[in-house]
Amino acid sequence: MSESPLPQLFDADEIDRRIPFDPTVDEPPRAAPVSDPDPRHVLERQFPHVVERLVLLWNRRECGDYLRSLLVTEQGESRRGFPLALIEDLLMLDAVHGARFPPAGARGGSAVPPRRT
């Protein structure tokens, strides 16, 4: 009597030979994420002066003003701005800080003020 076919069904090499990769349906295998040897956040690496000021202001109402000044460009002001991922992080920090120190006149958490025209 022959051996059970079940062990062959789970042999990855055998399955790969029987079922070819179809790029229209299948996703290619993902590479292992590249680990970054520098444990600092991108904001710390690219904008250390911003992080330094945030640390100094964190438990003060002025921190919210500083965060919003980083996120909002006044009319006529010219800046390069931050990468999108860092903007999302700054918005999160503004929300966390704003929950503790709501902007003057606000009832809820933090919000970026509307742009003046």
Descriptors:
6 helices, 117 residues, 45% helix, single chain, mainly alpha
How is this structure best described in words?
This protein is mostly helical and 117 residues long. The model has no long low-confidence stretch (mean pLDDT 75). It is elongated and about 65 Å long. 45% of the residues lie in helices and 0% in strands. The protein starts with 5 loop residues before the first helix and ends in a 17-residue tail after the last helix. The protein has helices at residues 6-9, 12-18, 42-46, 48-57, 62-71, 84-100. α5 (62-71) packs antiparallel against α6 (84-100). It has a domain at 45-100. It has six helices and no strands.
Topology of this protein?
Elements lengths: L5 H4 L2 H7 L23 H5 L1 H10 L4 H10 L12 H17 L17
Helix pairs in contact: 5-6
Average pLDDT over all residues = 75
Order of SSEs: HHHHHH
Radius of gyration: 26 Å
Number of helices: 6
- Secondary-structure-derived class: mainly alpha
Largest sheet: none
Précis, in short:
The chain is mainly α and about 120 residues long. About 45% of the residues lie in helices and about 0% in strands. The chain has a domain at about 45-100.
